[in-house]
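Table S5 (text form). Sequence records supplied for joint modeling of the two-component complex.
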Amino acid sequence: MTTPTDRSDAPRHEAPHASQDDPRVMLDRDLGVFEPVPPYPPRTEREAEFYTLRDGEMFINMGPQHPSTHGVLRVVLKLDGEKVVDLDPVLGYLHRGVEKLCENADYHHVISQVDPLEYVSSLFTEWAPVMAFEQLLDVQVPRRAEYIRVLSGELNRISSHALFLGWMALDLGGLTPILWSFIERDEIVEMLASLTGQRMLFNYFRIGGVNGDLNHDFMSRLGDWMSRATEQIDSGMGLLNENEIFVRRMRGLGTIDTKAALRMCFSGPNLRATGVPFDVRRAHPYSIYPELDFDIPTRTEGDCLARYLLRMDELKQSLRIIDQCLHQMPDGPIMAKMPRLLRPRPGRAYAAVEGPRGQYATYAMSDGTHQPFRMRIHDPSFVHLQAVGLMMPGHLIADTLAVMASLDPIMGGIDK
Amino acid sequence: MDRALKNRLEARFADRFSGPIRQRHDQTEMRIGAGDVTQVLTALHDEPEFRFEFLADLAGVDTGTVMQVVYHLWSDTTPDWLRLIADGLSRDDPRAPSATFLWKGAEWMEREAYDMFGIIFEGNRDLRRIYMPPDYTSFPLRKDFYLPDDAARSPGAGVRPMERTHEPRNAPAAATVRRSAV
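The corresponding structure-token record, covering 598 residues in total, follows.
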């Protein structure tokens, strides 16, 4: 966290003049003060309001290079003592223009373009565009491919939630859980690597199916892991669930009620933690989810602890889904018959999947050429991050990290 | 495809349509003029026969001839996604009413649409750029904004500096702008 260095009472650093020419000595350089107030007149009502300080208030910059911003995010905090009055997240440090790149890419290339968006759950960022394109093309995906998609997707969800568990504890100052959750994550990531060929940016789903069939290495790793997964996850969760400091700190922190959550367009675990049983897998079923038996856990508190516990409940449901996929896996092809060059008829399509963070969606338009005419990517982290401004006022500055971590934003997806 | 939803929408909003209702796969598409957005969104959100309380997505679209704002809504009254298209925004001065009076979460999505397309959302109290730097002057997702390395599709002149492409004198001839009829 950068603090303003303009403290007139602090003794000024005085270096001997001899060192001025010495390139090895850099101590007498002026470090400069990073001014949070933008150097241009305010553009909107809200900006003018935010960047006007009342008596006793101060600005402080968190980020862009802060270890717990989950990417490159700058948050301008307006403080009154230790209390946060208001905050203004500044985005764009990771903006790559993926939507424009997709509009200038072949339909098949889009999959590799969207991969790095949410780099901890890449399969879901592939899934939504692939589903949208399949709708544009009226393709029927083979059942085995759907099962493989769900199987690998749920594995990815577990690895993402495992990372969330560790990150969240790390943001609160606990180092141990991330070491434990990385055991879990690493096993899954290696498993997916033997299936897809990549550890993180899988590039695995294809329009009309998936890239490779289940192989022996993957299946033996998965079977090995499944036999001890429940036990392993429980022991990782035990570190936090039974930790009094953690629980008392998270309870009642960053509370958001059902109405506000719907007004903020929340989705996924963050919405379910306020009591709304909205899960795209059930609310708007896709793939083979209607055939699978699993529950949608909800909680009503809407605070950080509820969001954390809800994700942990989801892990168990994901294990149930994986178990069913393994038992029901049909034989057959893994790819529909597709031409090399795709030219869908002009039309529009919208496809949403339930990712680990919420509704991950793609809105695609085709104009009959081999490139999408418009491809809109909807990322849940983007929506959730803007609610931090709603939840933070009145809390302590150190709790900003806890609240942000509990919403589980990924900056790669937010900045597109 | 939910035929019942189509009938309900036609019974309620027929006087506001600017195009026919289209249904394909699990989506129902409805087009209205930008002036009716506030009333139609309020009706869809509040009326018990619709209850579209979940704004799934808000996107700007440049079709090459007009701008559009596309809302995707979810309700427990229908198995379909409802796609509401606010159609016919002029490309020179695209303006649409803000949806922030119903969904505060639309604020950033509208900021993004402003940043990428220059669509002004009237009523959004924080409409500034969100991804691009504040002194940036172009709107990158507009169809007359070419990627600098996409020389093949640039109109004859080859590569042009990114920031200049939006200026009228540098703008490519109208016929070369990619257009969509859907």
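Note: The first helix of chain A runs from residue 45 to 50.
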